[in-house]
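Batch manifest, entry 17 of 40.
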Amino acid sequence: MHFVRRTFLTAALLGIAAVTAAAMPGGAQSPVALKIATTPIDIGAQPFYAQDEGFFKNAGISADTQIISNGGAITAAVVGGSVDIAQSNIVSLATAHEKGLDLVLIAPAGAYSSKDATTALVVAKNSPIKTGKDLNGKTFAGNGLKNITQIGAFAWMSKNGGDTSTAKFVEMPFSNMPAALTAGRIDAAVMAEPDLSAALADGSVRVLANCYDAIANNFLIGAWFTTASWAKAHPDAVKRFQQAMIKTSEWANKNQAASGAILTKYTKITAAPNMKRSLYGTKIDGPSMQPLVDASAKYGVLTKTFPAGDMIAAEAR
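Output type: structure tokens
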């Protein structure tokens, strides 16, 4: 009888231990293997920090992170199944949502704050341009057509007396913008770090405005996404990844010197002392994305606005 009771008690305790281990993120449970894709820039660097600082390990994730520079290639990799999760910007993700693609958002990526702007609308150092009206009929440059740089430029122009229907917008790498401004081939440009700090340091440009303030003072620029079918099939992995990214964001926002060394290690970007660093969102929700979705519709990137929260996976809520 005592043998039977001890055996039952031992089995019960083992059962409790097994349940406890299964409930623990990381710890005793087997790691979830995830294939992740991101871009080799500051705003896409969360997986590198998560790997080196142990946030993936703590969440029970074994991450295989690959760098893909082209946004279209990243989306194709997720849709095709060669990558489980990837990072992209809210404008591209909203465009994909409008087209009915099977993509959903599961965690926050880069964020914009007017207090720590890493992107600005610039003009040549000696340019006479001061207002939105001064930009009527002028040529802007951004790093892509119908992306956040164009939306930000046009939002600021229209809020400061300009008529965006008269302006021309061209695509150009950030690194080419200072020379183009100096030569007069373009009149204004939306530049981001680290090229922005470099151009300001050599005196070739001056900041006209923190143009993203015309969208909102704070909003989410990017997010981590997957397919709706993958999220539905892997709800635990979604929650673990979301937990890891939020913990990583909180750490990176407070430890920019340490994150700068990791950024250089994985991307070869040198985080110079005068370089303003990217901030990261600490939650994924509709209100943090709505300003950019609304502005995308207002300036013709989307056909109409929609509730930004509709893009979030049910498993990530």
